[in-house]
């Protein structure tokens, strides 16, 4: 990513005007180098879609509200219908083009640093081989890696309450004692049996929430437990580690060459080639996925030209 596009924490880096101006500068052509503002793929009446930073798998999109909402729970019924249409179309694209499942997740009202508290939903390709069998274990692995739910431990006659210290200790040792809290597991997270649409008003009463689902699968959860930032991205990363040996080998090689960095953390790896590929891939067969009548209804406008 170009150094001229570093995030300024005092501005809304997910603002519609920022991406719209970036699209105008490149005349809607797919850029050769990605910047913060030139990743716009298309817009609809109330929403827009960009290629996501930290694109460790091609086909990673962000759906962002044009209005300055802090979560998708704030959408009204018409906006939610538009959002569902977008999710369906992007999932169809991922299934057709990448032959993968689709993970959809949001950290609503996250109060994230760097101007990232503007409402955005992640749409990311997930492995298509046996994901039902590894879903629960993947969630539990990530919860353990983050020491989610544990506030304080005792280890070798010392107490620790820093989450990074706790995480390191419990993941590499057995002789510790939890003295405040308990490790969360998937059964502690609320299932997504109640639709997100019907649960919006209740979610708005929470301080924050994480909503995670696999499109077309009865797999997911919606919780107000604080699990840390980029939990959904690490979840998808974990899916690949457990079920895709080829991708796992690529990730492991990269991790060995940069042991202090995390593949799923967008600040550590932008994966710029994948960002450009995502934009270029979307421009192909666009008409196959966007019915003209629906496109008019939702005011679909493409911002990538072949």
Describe this structure in words.
The chain is an alpha+beta fold and 306 residues long. It has one domain (3-135, 186-302): 2-Layer Sandwich (HIT family, subunit A). Helix 3 packs across helix 6 (231-243). It is globular and about 65 Å long. The chain is built from ten helices and eleven strands. The strands form two sheets. An eight-stranded antiparallel beta sheet has the order 10-9-4-5-3-2-1-11, with helices on both faces. It has helices at 16-25, 77-98, 131-145, 163-172, 200-203, 231-243, 245-257, 272-283, 286-289, 292-297; strands at 40-43, 47-51, 61-65, 101-108, 120-126, 150-155, 158-160, 176-181, 209-214, 220-223, 301-302. A hairpin with a 2-residue loop joins strand 6 and strand 7.
What's the gist of this structure?
The chain is α+β, with helices and mostly antiparallel strands and 306 residues long. The chain contains ten helices and eleven strands.
Summarize the topology.
Elements: H1 16-25, E1 40-43, E2 47-51, E3 61-65, H2 77-98, E4 101-108, E5 120-126, H3 131-145, E6 150-155, E7 158-160, H4 163-172, E8 176-181, H5 200-203, E9 209-214, E10 220-223, H6 231-243, H7 245-257, H8 272-283, H9 286-289, H10 292-297, E11 301-302
Antiparallel strand pairs: 1-2, 1-11, 2-3, 3-5, 4-5, 4-9, 6-7, 6-8, 9-10
Helix pairs in contact: 3-6, 6-7
What order do the SSEs take from the amino end to the carboxyl end, as H and E? HEEEHEEHEEHEHEEHHHHHE
In the CATH scheme, the class would be Alpha Beta
Shape descriptor: globular
Q: On the 0-100 scale, what is the average pLDDT?
A: 92
| End-to-end gap | 21 Å
Estimated radius of gyration: 20 Å
Tell me the structural class: alpha+beta
Strand order of the largest sheet: 10-9-4-5-3-2-1-11
The residue ranges in which pLDDT falls below 50 over 5 or more consecutive positions are 1-9
What portion of residues is helical?
25-40%
Sheet with most strands: 8 strands, antiparallel
């Amino acid at each position: 990513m170009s150094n001229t596009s570093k995030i300024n924490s005092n501005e809304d880096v997910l603002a519609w005007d920022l991406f719209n101006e970036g699209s105008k500068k490149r005349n809607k052509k797919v850029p050769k180098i990605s910047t913060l503002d030139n990743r716009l793929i298309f817009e609809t009446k109330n929403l827009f879609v960009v290629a996501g930073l930290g694109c460790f798998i091609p086909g990673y999109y962000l759906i962002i509200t044009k209005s300055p909402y802090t979560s998708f729970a704030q959408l009204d019924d018409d906006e939610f219908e538009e959002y569902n249409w977008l999710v369906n179309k992007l999932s169809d694209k991922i299934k057709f083009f990448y032959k993968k499942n689709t993970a959809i997740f949001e950290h609503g009202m996250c109060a994230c640093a760097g101007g990232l508290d503007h409402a955005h939903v992640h749409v990311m390709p997930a492995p298509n081989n046996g994901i039902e069998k590894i879903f629960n274990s993947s969630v539990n692995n990530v919860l353990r890696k983050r020491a989610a739910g544990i506030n304080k431990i005792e280890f070798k006659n010392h107490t620790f309450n820093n989450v990074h210290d706790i995480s390191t200790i419990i993941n590499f040792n057995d002789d510790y004692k939890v003295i405040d809290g308990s490790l969360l597991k998937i059964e502690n997270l609320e299932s997504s049996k109640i639709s997100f649409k019907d649960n919006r008003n209740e979610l708005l009463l929470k301080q924050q929430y994480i909503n995670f689902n696999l499109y077309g699968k009865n797999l997911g959860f919606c919780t107000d437990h604080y699990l840390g930032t980029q939990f959904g991205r690490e979840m998808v990363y974990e899916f690949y580690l457990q079920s895709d040996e080829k991708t796992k080998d690529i990730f492991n090689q990269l991790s060995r060459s940069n042991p202090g960095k995390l593949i799923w953390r967008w600040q550590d790896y932008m994966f710029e080639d994948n960002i450009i590929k995502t934009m270029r891939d979307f421009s192909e067969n666009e008409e196959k996925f966007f019915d003209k009548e629906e496109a008019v209804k939702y005011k679909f406008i493409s911002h990538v030209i072949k």
